[in-house]
Amino acid sequence: MIFPNSPLTDGQSMGYNNTAMYYERKINMKSKRRLLLFIMFFLLPVTLNYFSPYVIIDGLAHKLLSAAFFVWLLMFLSSLFFGRAFCSYVCPYGGLQMTVDSVIKKPLKKMRWFKAVRYILGILWITPIMILTIINAGNMKINLLYLTESFVSADNIYKLIGYYAIVTVLMIPPLLLGKRATCQICPMSILNVSGTKLRNVLNLTSLRLTADTVRCTGCRQCDKACPMSLNVSEMVKEDKLDSLDCILCGECCSACGSGVLKREVCSRGQHANISMGKEL
Ligand code: SF4
Ligand code: SF4
To answer: If you ran DSSP here, which 8-state letter would residue 151 be given?
Structure first.
């Protein structure tokens, strides 16, 4: 297989026999990621409460730390080392949107109010969580199965109706506004956006998107592939790969036939062209 503008030594320099093997691996990883995300969506009737802000707040009001509390904490902490990869590998709502996107293939209608809605909703949820955590600090018990005693979130008809209601509401943005529109306003993302921001400020060694900018041909295949509708080719051109909206899915890396883009474990400023990081 010939990859346009792709130096044949690329794959070899990374331990693969040839460039075809290198790209084959990328495509395999892409399929595995999508499968994982779909499984997370499929399991949502079971796991719904483990992601629920309502369960966190209700638990804290009763001086209880639910599983959802720890999932949210983990989401924030993981973003210090994996950026927003939670959104592309773990989030069941990301899986829901990926499933809708694969059927309707609608480009995102970019709206100016997306970010404002995200931050308003995020603050409305996170403020009571923080206040209740501070008020009850040192006086709380752990109850991971709070409101989910049977392990399964939707374990009766009313909860099942609630599950379908949530899924229906969350399907509306991608159906009306295009791909991953719910991500654009997702209040949960405020956690990993702030973690990613903190990671950038502290310049921690973490999973990052990097680019060998000089190789870019400007074909814009990366723009088409990006599920978050980022202008990736422009990011490459300006050498600004640290967008807080990038969920580190790697779709742009697989789409780029010139081997420009990579995901690497490195700190800011260590680029693919100097290969100082460990590529994923
Ligand atoms: S980075 Fe994007 S625009 Fe540049 S060569 Fe790769 S796919 Fe094309
Ligand atoms: S820029 Fe690349 S890694 Fe980031 S969200 Fe878009 S396709 Fe995924």
So the answer is: S
Residue 60 CB contacts under 8 Å (≥ 6 apart), including other chains: 69, 128, 129, 132, 133, 136, 140
Mutate to test the pocket of ligand 2, among 229, 232, 239 (most ligand atoms within 8 A of CB): 232
Pair of tokens at residue 131:
């206040």
Give the number of whichever ligand sits closest to the CA of residue 221.
1
CATH of domain 205-279: 3.30.70
Rounded Cα distance between 10 and 251, Å, is: 19
| Stated pTM of the model | 0.86
**Of the bound ligands, which one is closest to the alpha carbon of residue 207?**
2
| 249-264 b/e (C-beta count within 10 Å ≥ 16 → b) | bbbbbbbbbbbbbbbb
In the chain, domain spans? 43-197, 205-279
Residue of 98, 270, 248, 233 lying closest to 179 (CA atoms): 98
**At which residue do the structure tokens 């400020």 appear?**
201
Of 87, 30, 99, 105, nearest to 256 by C-alpha is: 30
pLDDT by residue (tens digit) across 83-92?
999 999 999 9
